[in-house]
Amino acid sequence: MSQRTERRGGIHVDQSDLLCKKGCGYYGNAAWQGLCSKCWREEYQRVRQKQIQDDWALAEKLQREEEAAYASSHGPQTQPPSQSTPPHPQPGHASLGPFSKFEEKKTNEKTRKVTTVKKFFSPSSRSAPKKETQEGKTPSPSVSRRASFDTDQVSKDFVDFLKNLQKPGREIHKQCRAFIGNMSSKKDLSADELSECVQDFYQNLADRLMGHFKCSSESVEQVMDQVEKYIMTRLYKSVFCPETTDDEKKDLATQNRIRALHWVTIEMLCVSFDEEIPEVSENVVKAITDVIEMDSKRVPRDKLSCITRCSKHIFSAIRITKKEPASADDFLPALIYIVLKANPPRLQSNIQYITRFCNPSRLMTGEDGYYFTNLCCAAAFIEKLDAQSLNLSPEEFERYMSGQASPRCSGSEEDWSSPAPAPTNPVLAQLNQNLEVLSGLSGRQEALMEAAHSLQADLLSWPESVQHEVHDILKKYPLEVLPRSAPAIDDNNDVDNDNLPPPLTPQVV
Amino acid sequence: MAAGGTGGKTYSFKVVLLGEGCVGKTSLVLRYCENKFNDKHITTLQASFLTKKLNITGKRVNLAIWDTAGQERFHALGPIYYRDSNGAVLVYDITDEDSFQKVKNWVKELRKMLGNDICLCIVGNKIDLDKDRHVSVEDAESYAESVGAKHYHTSAKLNKGIEELFLDLCKRMMETAQAEERLKGNGASQSASSRRGVQIVDDEPQATPAGGCCSSG
């Protein structure tokens, strides 16, 4: 390029300016920062090598910090500093030893359905599970291994994600680590205060990323998602349905309420599902599965996406039935119906958890937020549901609630006698099918057990019968070992010999 | 709530759609977002949550429109829906006196719960059926003025007045957001305002250490 200007404009360029800056004697090129091709390649390799080494160093540093944080956050957990209740069960409970151990394992299961079910049957011993959750902090090795495997995986993903961010990544990691350390000392705060802390942290971090590191709002969103995932996976145990709140009691109340409302039909709620269409009932089943699955997730955002998936299935079902896009007028009753049919475990706790700890930007204006709000509405509606909201007379409502009547079979008696009235409800259909399969299986199991028993009996009696036979045979043919008397063979000394006629003697005639 | 209002110049607004069952809320919003009416070819799976991106005087606006269930039995759930919303579109059917009465109830409730932070639009829909009108124009407009709301006449069928309604609403919400920003300035109070329904007391002792630990850590 410079050569051309030289010719055109007559500007003198010194020969030495065109040479490689390394001074190797070859010509350089502006595109290679004034180096010749050979020197440029060397330089480029060197810089790249350095970059790679730097990246490695950063990654390793993050990893080390991560491990240190993990160790420190687990330190205080294994020994609760100031717990009013002793970590070991009181002497009186000692007899419950193996049972509570079993319960403890169950409590630590990711899906804690068992606890809720168990609580159903023993509402009087409500304090017991709490103690167990505390004991759960010194869990059996297998449980802790699994839990830490999950957390480790999340931590690893988090570090991997932050590696791409270089400097902000290090800062984010440092802050998250410090925050989690801080939170472990704040276990006694009320749920709202905990929420406050987490929300403040989100806000501060987002502000700092925006202000200090000049990140775009999209990338901040991305980072915040990862931060939420990382933090909440770690804090989940201590902040989900904490003992300081009555979330647990509300869960129980809601669960009982939904059970008591089992008789509510699709017509009473005016849901536009035509469950005769197989695609619709398929979507209904999927929606029910999704809303139940919510409880098994740890990160608020994952819980939200369960709700969103559930909602999408509901929309599909409505769309297929009505052939037009679903409005809120269709959606909310349908969602209520799904919640009633699903009776999702720990519904109130999950709602509270999401409200308290979800990234606010997602919850406020996003699509997920809309569906979540509808779920809150559904829960509120179910709680306050009365005769009027189902267009029933108060008497009817009372009768259904008390179980004296059931809307489904109040019509005709012959429905009862007919062998199998086709169930309109897909859940019932599924249930029936499952029951059939189960009864078939149990039949087979019984047959198998019977066969096994008879085989066992056979096996037991076999040696006896063999013994009997042997005895019988022995009795019949007693084996008497007679003394081997010589006379039996030797007839020379026979006494009767005398009576015998004399042996014939040859006569010579 | 104007998330990133100062930095990225993008406003995010939440608008709730309130009104009785058959006043045409869904048609209105489908007309606005998809420009379709009673169309067999509507592609969207649902019409209960729709978004629209706008560019108003060089500022980007993300509008999220939340449809609400209009049946009477769900009336009590209103507060859960309109919490944290920047605007409300209250729709009535000009041929249905009752639906206008419902709008009045909503307005009362919204003003009571959210004060003047929320921009209200009262919308008389179905003006294509003007011959069956049961709510007079004067009544509706004077009522709207008395409660500090704007009144619009629309027809989702004929696609009349809808674009204007939402554009106007967005401008008003932007003004409110800007006024709020100016009032509060930058800093902690602004960040607090962008939280959802959490009550924040200024002298909350726990809030300070939480903030301190993060910045120091």
TrEMBL record, chain A:
Q: Where is the composition biased (Low complexity)?
A: 72-82
Q: Where is the signal peptide?
A: none
Q: Where is the composition biased (Pro residues)?
A: 500-509
* UniProt region (Disordered), positions on chain: 63-149, 403-423, 486-509
Q: Which InterPro entries match?
A: DUF5601 (IPR041545), VPS9 (IPR003123), Vps9-like (IPR045046), VPS9_dom_sf (IPR037191), Znf_A20 (IPR002653)
Q: Which PROSITE patterns match?
A: VPS9, ZF_A20
Q: What is the protein's given name?
A: RAB guanine nucleotide exchange factor (GEF) 1
Ranked from the top, the taxonomy reads:
Eukaryota, Metazoa, Chordata, Craniata, Vertebrata
Automatic annotation (TrEMBL), chain B:
Q: This protein is called what?
A: Ras-related protein Rab-21
Kindly give the Gene3D superfamilies that the UniProt entry links to this protein.
P-loop containing nucleotide triphosphate hydrolases
The highest taxon in the source lineage is Eukaryota
Keywords recorded for this protein, A-Z: GTP-binding, Lipoprotein, Membrane, Nucleotide-binding, Prenylation, Protein transport, Transport
Ranges of Polar residues composition bias in the record: 187-196
**Residue ranges of the region described as Disordered:** 181-217
GO cellular component term, pick one: cleavage furrow
A Gene Ontology BP annotation from the UniProt entry: protein transport
Q: What is its main location?
A: other
Localization per record: Cleavage furrow; Endoplasmic reticulum membrane
Q: Spell out where the chain crosses the membrane.
A: none
Organism, per UniProt? Eleginops maclovinus (Patagonian blennie)
Give the Gene Ontology MF terms in alphabetical order: GTP binding; GTPase activity
List the membrane topology term(s).
Lipid-anchor
Extract the InterPro entries matched here.
P-loop_NTPase, Rab21, Small_GTP-bd, Small_GTPase
* UniProt family annotation: Belongs to the small GTPase superfamily. Rab family.
